[in-house]
Design brief:
The chain is of the alpha+beta class. It contains eight helices and 14 strands. The longest helix is centred in the last third of the chain and has 36 residues, at 268-303.
């Protein structure tokens, strides 16, 4: 396989928002900046990229339009990898499986923290109905260069079609790491450090926060062949939810980071499905975050 090495000068566009994405990139040298609405009156800088980081991968994983414009900040060198060569790229560089997963996991973690903060603010807004109670939240958003105008809240839900197709490809695959659990089994608890992830092959697993407490919240039901526990495995941090078996004879596959290379060699569709799950989760969490921000913003305007 041949990756394409490209050079860009300061201010040059590497990828453009809205374009269809059939390649992704690894930043080899220099720095880059990510914008939404680049070149327009409501331009927003949303991220900085450093050497060694990947970008543009979500468009490849999900076959989704580019969500931002990436601009060279000084002289930049990148490797460009075509979507159809992703499997070969990982075959030649197996450590990149975990790198790409960790990148998505880190983005999900950050966006989840933002969303949780927005939910708390929104709850206060609904109860108190006073803009003075969320001025500090607005200040943080301004610092993050998020403009609070209605047209910047992108409320298009991500499609799950590509995720379903990847799951179909995995559903018939055999593996040697399956474990069967009875109803009510707690697979892991909130607060425990996660060292593995799971794929459901039969039955159902429910995901909760504050499981067993008065403020228990059911976050999701994971059915065949969905994934859960990826973030704990990728970040090495404490789990922020509890996974509980909902049906007797629920069968799950246990995956550790060191298993990923072997899984890719035997079942590349399984790695593709995991990546799609991560990408979909990031898009969906981003959607929910901006949805909450939109309601907070509109409430503030109503109260002005």
């Amino acid at each position: 396989m041949s990756t394409i090495n490209k050079s860009f000068s300061n201010g040059e566009i590497i990828i453009k928002e809205g374009d269809s994405g059939n390649t992704f990139f690894k930043l080899l040298a220099g720095k880059a900046e990510v914008y939404q609405n680049y070149g327009k009156a409501d331009e927003v800088k949303i991220a900085d990229l450093e050497e060694g980081q990947y970008f543009g991968e979500m468009a490849v994983i999900e076959n989704y339009p580019r969500s931002g414009t990436v601009i060279a900040a000084g002289d930049v060198q990148v490797d460009e990898i075509a979507a159809e060569e992703l499997n070969e790229y990982i075959t030649e560089n197996p450590n990149n499986i975990l790198e790409i997963m960790k990148l998505l996991g880190s983005r999900i973690k950050t966006m989840t923290e933002n969303y949780n903060e927005a939910k708390k603010v929104l709850d206060d807004v609904r109860k108190v109905n006073s803009s003075s109670h969320y001025d500090s939240f607005f200040a943080k958003m301004a610092q993050q260069s998020i403009y609070l105008t209605a047209k910047n809240f992108r409320l298009e839900r991500p499609s799950a079609e590509s995720l379903r197709e990847a799951e179909k490809a995995v559903s018939g695959l055999k593996n040697d790491n399956n474990t069967t659990y009875p109803y009510g089994t707690i697979i892991y608890k909130q607060g425990e450090v996660g060292k593995c992830m799971y794929i459901v092959h039969a039955g159902t697993v429910n995901i909760f926060t504050n499981y067993g407490a008065d403020n228990e919240i059911k976050l999701a039901s994971i059915e065949p062949v969905g994934c859960f526990g990826e973030l704990g495995m990728l970040t090495g941090e404490a789990r922020n939810e509890t996974a509980v078996v909902e049906a007797n004879d629920t069968q799950v596959e246990i995956i550790h980071p060191e298993d990923l290379e072997g899984i890719f060699k035997s079942s590349p569709a399984k790695i593709d499905m995991i990546l799609k799950n991560l990408s979909y989760r990031l898009r969906n969490t981003t959607y929910e975050y901006y949805k909450a921000c939109k309601e907070i913003y509109e409430s503030s305007r109503d109260n002005d």
